[in-house]
Amino acid sequence: MELKYGCNPNQKPSRVFMKDGAALPFEALNGKPGYINLLDALNGWQLVKSAKEVLGLPAATSFKHVSPAGAALGLELTETERKMYHIAANATLTPLACAYAKARGADRMSSFGDFIALSDVCDKETALLIKPEVSDGVIAPDYTDEALELLKAKKNGNYCVIRIDPDYVPEALEQKQVFGVTFEQGYNDFRIDETLLTNIVTKNKTLPENAKRDLILSLITLKYTQSNSVCYVKDGQAIGVGAGQQSRIHCTRLAGQKADNFLLRSHEKVLNLPFRDEVKRQDRDNAIDLYIGPECEDVLAEGKWQPLFTEQPEALTEEEKRAHLAGVTGLALGSDAFFPFGDNIERAARSGVKYVAQPGGSVRDDHVIAACDAHDMVMCFTGMRLFHH
Questions:
Q1: Which residues of 240-259 are buried (b: 16+ CB within 10 A; e: fewer)?
Q2: Are residues 363 and 221 in the same domain?
Q3: 367 catalytic residue (yes or no)
Q4: In CATH, what number is assigned to the domain containing residue 215?
Q5: Within a 13 Å sphere around the CA of 41, how many CA atoms are in the beta-carbon half?
Q6: CATH number of the domain residue 286 falls in
Q7: Using CB atoms within 10 A of its CB, is residue 388 exposed (0-12), middle (13-18) or buried (19+)?
Q8: Reduced to 3 states, what is the DSSP secondary structure of residue 371?
Q9: Three-class SS state of 24
Q10: Whether 13 and 143 share a structural domain
């Protein structure tokens, strides 16, 4: 398959192919995918396929620059979530549509212009949710006729729609080139499931089923996230993914801030912001991100709020933010490598984390365990690193 160019416009020629001359395991039903589009599509597909196989629910993910901005399972949306994701209260949602809504809704700023991966056949209900969003493309095992017609109409008919063979299994060895040097390694077919959660090293050893589900989703998400990475999960939804950070604590802080931003979007003041009817959803997302952040005057100051709102909103105070976040608990946190210091646990606790899964193996494991015990957390040592580059 010939591509327009590689990672950048100057990187030509560009193509993808199977080394043995076989047909590609996917086809473009509409549009023409780019180099980065296909990196996102193939990583995203592996994520949702694994999540569906292990957890038994439809799964969706929203990828940007070869890392997930969000990933989620097909659990029913609450009324509050529908408001957060700009979904009508009376809209019919299938489990797959719910998975997509949650994946896209986890970090709507980062998902702008994403590539979507769906574990199941894309149905009309899911396509209707995808249609108004700014997105580069979607990959799924197949599409209903109605869904395909809706998706083909996006981007003036240029929206990328990829169908992948759900039974395709890659070769045992994979290769890539960097600076003319060929790297080879075994394909990472390690299965992530409940067996990784049996070694509980904290005093608190109570690990309910929903926490197991969320920890597994966090680890599967991390398997396809550029390292260093950590992932916060709430109710079957990855709400804070920190990718590609050199320092583990910076990664934990970044993902924690994303999780906090997600949680603050359910605050009553945010849900009831008096937007003008003509304000587009992406402009609403940008305004909400500014409103809940330290730059709130960029949307609340005189001359700034008028194009967005019918009346000037009250600011969301730091006290109100702290009070809202203080009421959140039960989050799961996964890490693709061990936590070297307890400061990661202290930061995670501020975002309501109760359950942790990480490989273990640090010389300071005892300090990290002690930090978990101080917050009555449950922590599992998985014994498995999940670096991805």
A1: bbbbbbeebbebbbbbbebb
A2: yes
A3: no
A4: 3.40.140.20
A5: 24
A6: 1.10.287
A7: middle
A8: helix
A9: coil
A10: yes
Active site residue 64: yes
Domain extent for 331: 192-264+326-381
Domain identity same for 250 and 340: yes
* Residue 86 is among the residues annotated as catalytic for this protein: no
Active-site hit among 64, 102, 258, 267: 64
Measured over the CA atoms of residue 83, residue 77, residue 268 and residue 270, the dihedral's sign is: negative
Q: What is the pLDDT of residue 266?
A: 96
Whether residue 241 sits in one domain with residue 335: yes
CB 242 within 8 A of CB 223: no
- Each residue's pLDDT tens digit, 71-108: 999 999 999 999 999 999 899 999 999 999 999 999 99
pLDDT tens digits, residue range 318-338?
A: 999 999 999 999 999 999 999
Q: How confident is the model at residue 255 (pLDDT cuts 50, 70, 90)?
A: very high
Catalytic residue among 30, 37, 228, 344: 228
Question: Is 203 an active-site residue?
Answer: no
Q: What is the pLDDT of residue 346?
A: 97
